Amino acid sequence: MSTSSNFSLKGKVVVYIGGTGGIGIGSCKAFLSRNISNLYVLDRTYNEETIKCFQEINPSTKLSFLPLDITKNDEISRCLEQVICEAHYIDVLVNGAGICDERDVEKEIAINLTGPIQTTIKAFKLMNRNKKGRGGVIVNISSIAGLKPFEAKAVYCATKHGLNFKITADFYFKKTGITVLCVCPGLTTSPMTSKDVVTKGTFPYSAEITTDVLKEKPQTVDEMGEMLVKIVEINKNGSIWLCRIGTMEEIFLGMYEEPE
Ligand SMILES: NC(=O)c1ccc[n+]([C@@H]2O[C@H](COP(=O)([O-])OP(=O)(O)OC[C@H]3O[C@@H](n4cnc5c(N)ncnc54)[C@H](O)[C@@H]3O)[C@@H](O)[C@H]2O)c1
Q: Which family does this protein fall into (predicted)?
């Protein structure tokens, strides 16, 4: 049975990787509306306007930007340890960086899958309430393409299926006090989707395969961000959430059972 407990964000330290991207901006705005104590925005891209706008939304939250390339393990360690050094705890870590570009398979896997796995493993050590942490919540941003085939972007789809990696057993929760949640956005208007989303496919001719995912009405990043933050507040360990067209729904994946 999964552990579920309402999680109050007030006074918490939130680390958002990919925080200057579209869904990152929508989600950081929603976190700021909860009176968190610290927001650490970690991203490869610095955007002064975005950071200024975050600070204006809630001047009482301490805001910091740390440059991070999630494909670099030493940078992950340096950034997360800097947060602990300055703010003492990480209460929420969001893995929200991602690309959708099949022209460089290794890079796509490194950013979308290996990076979030590395940050999760590192954060487990720093957030563990039986060590120096106080437990908390880790959110991995997968995709509707992590729940069903998205064949024009087969590698992206594989990385997003992989983001539902299982480090969610009660066994881990009891040892650490950390819950791990998986959020799967549907089509959301952002820089990622406003760039030609059907080009940069697995093969040059993959653009011919359009999918239902790309035909649906896009939601806004603000709608997506508000849902992500509500899912953190619900805090059901191991839960997977589909967030599309402005609505959220918990998804239960089938499990293969060994025959007796
Ligand atoms: N927009 C959608 O329709 C949609 C749907 C499903 C899932 N998603 C997922 O949501 C997440 C956010 O997507 P978005 O739409 O906001 O895209 P976006 O391009 O606006 O934001 C992605 C962010 O990731 C950052 N990033 C990229 N490479 C990085 C690296 N090496 N190290 C650190 N940061 C890096 C970028 O700088 C950017 O700020 C992604 O994981 C994406 O796959 C998006």
A: Belongs to the short-chain dehydrogenases/reductases (SDR) family.
